[in-house]
Amino acid sequence: MSEYDLVVIGAGPGGYVSAIRAGQLGMKVACIDKRETLGGTCLNVGCIPSKALLQSSHKFYDSQNHFAEHGIIAENVKADIGKMQERKNKVIGDLCKGIDFLFKKNKVEKITGTAKLLGDGKISTGEKEITAKNILIASGSVPSSLPDIEIDEKNIISSTGALELDKVPENLVVIGGGVIGLELGSVWARLGSKVTVIEYADDIIPMMDSDIVKNFSRTMKKQGMELKTKTKVVGVKATKKGATIELNGRDDDKSEKIECDKVLIAVGRKPFTDELGLENVGITTNKHGFIEVDKNFKTSVDNVYAIGDVIGGAMLAHKAEEEGVACVEQLSGLRAHVNYNAIPSVVYTHPEVASVGKTEQEIKEQKIEYNVGKFSFIANSRGRAVGETDGLVKVITEKETDKILGVHIMGDQAGTIIHEAVIVMEYTGTSEDLFRCCHAHPTLNEAVKEACLDVHKRAIHS
Ligand code: FAD
Ligand code: NAD
Q1: Residue 185 C-alpha to ligand 2 middle, in angstroms?
Q2: Which of 66, 337, 419, 441 is catalytic?
Q3: 441 is catalytic
Q4: Which has the least CB within 10 A, 174, 201, 252, 322?
Q5: Quick check: is 257 in a domain?
Q6: pLDDT tens readout for residues 78-117
C-alpha cells in the first residue's frame, strides 16, 4: 500500500490546483475524482461551458442587433445549435486534457474513482485502498432544487441540462434571478427563446450593489427578458409539452400559472459530501451541509482539510483555488492566507457585472462613513467608439482614509476591468492611489480612474 504526503479528493478548480501546487512543493500527491475528465464542475458543467455558449450566443445576437449600426449587412444569419454545442464540447475536452498534462508535469497521480474516508489516513478509491499523511477534501457542490420539485434534466432542468439543450426552447422559465439564471437565461434569450425570470427577492442579482442592479435590470429587460421579481414559485409540474409553473406574488398573494417548454431551476448550489464517508472519521457538517474548517482549513479531524464550495462562502472557482493553494502552502510550512475582502465576482452577461469588496448596502449596515464616486460608460470615449455605452463604475471609499472599500462595475468587459481595483484593494490602496496611476487612452478602464476622481469631486469628463 503506497503512502502519499497528500491525497486530494475532487479535481475541480479547488482540488486540481491544490494537487499541482503540492507537486510543485515536492509532495507525493494523488488527486481522486469520480469523473474521468478532470476540472470538476467548473470545466465540465460550469464556468467554461457556460462561457463558451455565452460567447457563441453573443456573436449571434450582435449579428442580429448591432452589426447594422456599424454598416455591416448580415442577412440570413442562422444559429446552428449543434455546431455551438460541438465547439463548447471541444473547448471543455481540450482544457480537461490540459489538466492531465499539468498533472504529469507536476508528478500528480490521477486516480479515477469515488473516494471514501476509512479513518487513520486510509481512503478507498473504489478499486483500491490508499493511505495519506494529509487528506484535502475538495468535493464541491451540486445544484439545489426546491421542495417537491424533481429536476429530470428533460423539461425541468438544472444548469447542467441548460448547457446541453439541442434546440432553442420557445419559452424558457428561469427560477432564480442569480448568476446562473441570468447567464444561462441570456444564452437562450439571445438565440431566440422567450425567457421569463422568476426571482423571490426585490430584484435580480440581489447580492450585488443596488445602483448596479437598477441599471442591469433595465438592460436585461431591454434585451427581451421578462423579470418577475418579488415572486414565489408555489409548484412546478412536468407536462407533455414542457412544464406548468404556479406563482404567487411574494407580498400580495396574486397567483398566476405559466406554461413553458423548459424550466431552469437556478436557486443556488449545495455542498456535496454524500459519498465521502464523513461519518467514518467523525466529521459533521453544519445545518447547511457545509464542512466547517478553521483558519488553516483544518476540519474537526487532524490531518483532514477542506476547501472550495464544500466549505461555503463565495461559491467561485477562483476562491476555491486561492484556498487550495493557501492550505497546501501552510502544510509545507509556508506562510499563506486568503484575503476574502478582495475576491472579485463577475456575472458574464452582456454587459458584464463585476464587483469586489463591500456593496453600499453593506457599508450602510456596518455604519461606516463613506464617499462614493461614479462614472458612466456613456462619457467614456472608448465606450462610444466601440458602441458600448451601457455601463457604470461605482467606487466606495472610507471617508476618513480614502481606502477603497468596494468597486462595482456594469459594462463591457467589467470582469476584466475590475482587476485593477482588486490589486489596489489587495494592497489596501486608496482611490487617489488608483487615479494617480496613468491609464492608457482610450480604454474602458479610464472609467474606473474617473470614478475614483469623482470620489474627490474632480472627475474630468463629467
Ligand atoms: P467542484 O468544481 O464542484 O469539483 C468537485 C469535484 O469533486 C467534482 O469533480 C466531483 O466529481 C468530485 N467529487 C465529489 N465527491 C467525490 C468523491 N467522494 N470522490 C471522488 N470525487 C468526488 N465560478 C466562477 O468563479 N466563475 C464562473 O464563471 C462560474 N460559472 C459557473 C457556471 C455554472 C453553470 C456553474 C454550475 C458554476 C459556475 N461557477 C463559476 C462556480 C464554480 O464552478 C465552482 O465554484 C467551482 O467549480 C468550485 O470548485 P471546487 O473545486 O470546490 O468543486
Ligand atoms: P445564486 O445564489 O446566485 O442565485 C439564486 C437566486 O435564486 C437568488 O437570487 C435567490 O434569491 C433566488 N431564489 C432562491 N429561491 C427562490 C425561489 N424559491 N423562487 C425564486 N427565486 C429564488 O445561485 P445560482 O445562480 O444557482 O448559482 C449558484 C452558485 O454558482 C453561485 O453561488 C455562484 O457564485 C456560482 N456561479 C458563479 C458564476 C460566476 O461567477 N459567473 C456563474 C454561475 C454560477
Answers
A1: 12
A2: 441
A3: yes
A4: 252
A5: yes
A6: 999 999 999 999 999 999 999 999 999 999 999 999 999 9
Query: Using CA atoms, how far apart are residues 385 and 375, in angstroms rounded to an integer?
Result: 17
One domain, residues 60 and 73: yes
- What are the C-alpha distances in Å from 229 to residues 142, 236, 349? 25, 17, 19
Residue 192 lies in a domain: yes
Mutate-to-test residue for ligand 1 from 34, 42, 273, highest number of ligand atoms within 8 A of CB: 42
Half-sphere CA count of 265, side-chain side, radius 13 A: 25
Grid coordinates representing 303 are 490531518
Digit-coded pLDDT (tens) for 174-219? 999 999 999 999 999 999 999 999 999 999 999 999 999 999 999 9
117 DSSP β-pair partners: 123
Q: Is 269 in the pocket of ligand 2 (CB under 6 A)?
A: yes
110 within 8 A of 4, measured Cβ to Cβ: no
Domain end, chosen from 322, 338, 354, is at: 338
Is residue 324 in contact with ligand 2, taking CB distance under 6 Å?
Answer: no
Q: How far is the CA of 179 from the centre of ligand 2 (A)?
A: 5
pLDDT digits (tens, 9 = 90+) for 381-421: 999 999 999 999 999 999 999 999 999 999 999 999 999 99
Q: Say yes or no to pLDDT of 361 above 60.
A: yes
Q: What pTM was estimated for this model as a whole?
A: 0.98
Residues 316 and 391 in one domain: no
**CATH number assigned to the domain comprising residue 202:** 3.50.50.60
100 with 41, same domain: the answer is yes
Residue among 41, 124, 163, 338 whose CB has most ligand 1 atoms within 8 A, to mutate:
41
Mutational test site, ligand 1, from 139, 291, 346, max ligand atoms within 8 Å of CB: 139
On whether both 12 and 137 belong to a single domain, the answer is: yes
CATH number of domain containing 350? 3.30.390.30
DSSP H or E run through 179: helix 179-190
What is the distance in A from the centroid of ligand 1 to the CA of 68? Answer: 40
Residues 135 and 78 placed together within one structural domain of the fold: yes
Whether 253 has a pLDDT exceeding 90, the answer reads no
Classify 288 as helix, strand or coil. coil
CA of 351 to the centre of ligand 2 (A): 18
Q: Residue 58: exposed, middle, or buried by beta-carbon count in 10 A (0-12, 13-18, 19+)?
A: middle
* Residue for grid cell 465547439: 87
Q: How far is the CA of 89 from the centre of ligand 2 (A)?
A: 24
Read off the pLDDT of residues 7-44 as tens digits, 9 standing for 90 and up: 999 999 999 999 999 999 999 999 999 999 999 999 99
Q: Is the C-beta atom of 454 inside 6 A of ligand 2? A: no
Of the candidates 234, 252, 267, which is a domain's last residue?
267
Calpha distance 435→452 (Å, rounded): 6
Q: What residues make up the domain containing 348?
A: 342-455
Total count of domains within the chain: 3
